[in-house]
Amino acid sequence: MKALLMATAAVMGFSAFAAQAEEVVNVYSSRHYQTDQALYDDFTKATGIKVNLIEGKGPALVERIKSEGENSPADVLITVDAGNLWRAEQQGVFQAVSSDELESRIPANLRHEDGKWFGLSTRARAIFYDKAKVKEGEITSYEDLADPKWAGKVCIRKSSNIYNQSLLASIVEHKGEAAAEEWAKGVVANFARQPVSGDTNQLRGIGSGECVVAVSNSYYFARLIKKPKDSDKGLAEKLGIVFPNQNDRGTHVNISGAGVTAHAPHRENAVKFIEYLASDSAQRYFADGNNEYPVVEGVAPNSTIKSWGDFKVDTINVNAYGENQPTAQKIFDRVGWK
Ligand code: FE
Questions:
Q1: Are 255 and 219 in contact (CB under 8 A)?
Q2: CATH code of the domain made up of 123-251+318-335
Q3: Spatial CB neighbours of 52, under 8 Å, sequence gap ≥ 6
Q4: CATH T-level assignment (fold) for domain 23-122+253-306
Q5: pLDDT tens per residue across span 240-287
Q6: pTM, two decimal places
Q7: Ranges for all domains in the chain classified under CATH 3.40.190.10
Q8: Which of 27, 132, 153, 221 is least surrounded by CB atoms within 10 angstroms?
Q9: Measured in angstroms, how far is the CA atom of residue 293 from the centroid of ligand 1?
């Protein structure tokens, strides 16, 4: 018992010393952009809190936090897609945070109701078409993807992809399970080929002539415009972008987001860090890291994104993407969406 007390005292003494020596926040992130590093440096300059960054794929980081348990050094988890954030929350990775700043700056539909995670940027799941084969206005909605008119012409990635799970989950929420299944069945019937991985590969399918219309998140198109690989030169010019469902519910958007972990050793610093990411000055750069849209009103996106114009956004609560994820998965299996 005495030994244990001494050991405890030693640990406490050490952590008190460490806290005095240096304020830190440990961030586990599935984002890996130059702009993010510049942002973190800025945060350190403004607050004196050092950012220790651990990068990895979202699901791997969640597994890591779970296996580290109460001893996890993680304070903040940053990952993409409300579907992933929802899954992480279900696994007990986050704790509730209440912050007037975050609640007033981030729209309620883009964050967890108990503050377990917060959306920090958005991306649109857009439809693209071959400008040589399709006229502007010929395809305008997700529903059109299931129209027999496009038989053998539609490219979209696999059902294991979280972006598609979230898209289908949104349709379940808006139209119910039966209608969502009808839609998924129609899309499968229109496949140009069995789904392959990667949104960019759907856009390349238009370039190669295999696909006529394709579904991709908006930032992949921005990347093709701004920094195409040599083999992708000229591809962006062949593509038209459609923000679907402008005459009804609006275009499906998803988020990049962050939450404070359940056992965060530096909870206060973690909250400060997320508040910083929602500040006007950080918003633009955080969104820009991946050519996304800022979530805070009045902060403009970069000029490439801006050039596509404003569009009506589906303002559904993104929590529904998680809640309907099991239903979406079952529908995908039933309709044979690989
Ligand atoms: Fe992506």
A1: no
A2: 3.40.190.10
A3: 24, 25, 26, 27, 73
A4: D-Maltodextrin-Binding Protein; domain 2 (3.40.190)
A5: 999 999 999 999 999 999 999 999 999 999 999 999 999 999 999 999
A6: 0.91
A7: 23-122+253-306, 123-251+318-335
A8: 132
A9: 14
